[in-house]
Amino acid sequence: LLRQILDQWFESEPLKATLATDAVIGAMASPHTPGSGYVLLHHVMGELEGRRGAWGYVAGGMGALSQAIASAAAAQGAHIFTEKAVCHVLLGRDGRAQGVVLQDGTEVRSKLVLSNASPQITFLELTPQEQLPKDFAQRIQQVDTRSPVTKINVAVDRLPSFLAAPNPHNGQPLPHHQCSIHLNCEGTHLLHQAFTEATHGYPSTRPMIELCIPSVLDPELAPRGCHVVSLFTQYTPSELAGGQPWDERARNAYADTVFDCVEAYAPGFKASIIGRDILTPPDLERIFGLPGGNIFHGGMSLDQLYFARPVPSYSGYRSPVPGLYLCGSGAHPGGGVMGAAGRNAARVALEDFRHL
């Protein structure tokens, strides 16, 4: 249990709760949920420029990372097609993957196919079901993809000023503005309470909030004097109690709850908002293809990690379809902006390619 790990190393409850957020981030789990300790370790096991457990912002926004990867691939001769939806994986008579068919009917032939989509989309939507073992397809359907995350992007006309450390008169950013700011995390019991509300189908009345202001370090993200604020919040259920829809009213009601919470820590925050974008779990699924809105393509619980990711016997990036590989977050070692699954899958695919 996460609680046991934190109690062993720390005494301060606010510090424990702040660290606990990384144990439940993106997970429909409580700090008291068995296995939650691993999720914390998963988020701090990496390093940035030699600093262990460190995180960083991408200059130009997260899209700039995709552009950098695309540029590197193009430099090696890769051809990249965007806005070209894939209809299904193209199979030969021998059942081997031979490319993909686009929705406009275009066939793109290839000896190998690597899918960065979720296991659910890859195998249940893009792969002919008659080519998959029934038990494999059933296991993919049973993967836990519940998500508690609602992402809110906010544009503000001034830097938030927190009661704990008010802004100076010159308006210059302070050190905490350059970091990840955790709100509603004074105690792990608050996280558990927020989780419990969501399990009953209700958005948390005091949600866990991770607030970042990337424009402090990257001024090009916003006009002079203005900022963009990223609010990573939980817990919100994918399906609301009583079958209520996640419509505009429900989205705005939850966003108002989040803003009220931020306002309590940083008075004037609500008045500074000039734009907002609210992405609930159904929105994350619809727009980004995340099953259930899960940012990791599936829960990071112990029964869905290592040799069981995405399902037992298929944790090595290969699939029941020869020539078709899974290289996204649904594969080992799971989610996170680290590229480990893609790198590992590429090495496996290249090894197979040499034997074709």
UniProtKB/TrEMBL annotation:
GO terms for molecular function: oxidoreductase activity. It comes from Zapornia atra (Henderson crake). It is found in: Mitochondrion matrix. Interacts with COX5B; this interaction may contribute to localize PYROXD2 to the inner face of the inner mitochondrial membrane. Pfam families: Amino_oxidase. The lineage of its organism: Eukaryota, Metazoa, Chordata, Craniata, Vertebrata. This is Pyridine nucleotide-disulfide oxidoreductase domain-containing protein 2. Gene3D superfamilies: FAD/NAD(P)-binding domain. One of its GO terms (cellular component) is mitochondrial matrix. Belongs to the carotenoid/retinoid oxidoreductase family. Probable oxidoreductase that may play a role as regulator of mitochondrial function.
